[in-house]
């Protein structure tokens, strides 16, 4: 799944703990939906081309919570967007 597809699902799906999301997915209350926190990490993050859900890291203190850092594209002086590293 690409980053764009994940963002589109987040935009349509909302936050995994919302009652409406559980209702739309017809899940019972005890069911937890895995959560992925995508955050900017310009030093150690993945480039958009290397992004893969297989590279997510588990937050061990929480059940079903994961993180993944990505390098954000930068806008240069010529008004075009470039990817770092």
The helix content is 10-25%
Mean pLDDT: 76
Radius of gyration, in Å, reads: 16 Å
Question: What percent strand?
Answer: 15-25%
Secondary structure tally: strands: 5
Q: How are the strands ordered across the major sheet? A: 1-3-2
Uncertain segments of ≥5 residues (pLDDT<50)? Answer: none
- The shape, in one word, is elongated
Distance between the termini: 22 Å
If helices are DSSP runs of H or I spanning 4 or more residues, what is the number of helices?
A: 2
- How would you sum up the major sheet? 3 strands, mixed
SS class: alpha+beta
What is the domain total for the residues?
1
SSE succession: HHEEEEE
Structure description:
With 85 residues, the protein is of the alpha+beta class. The chain has one domain. 20% of the residues lie in helices and 21% in strands. It is built from 2 helices and 5 strands. The strands form 2 sheets. The chain has a 3-stranded mixed sheet with strand order 1-3-2, with no helix packed on it. It is elongated.
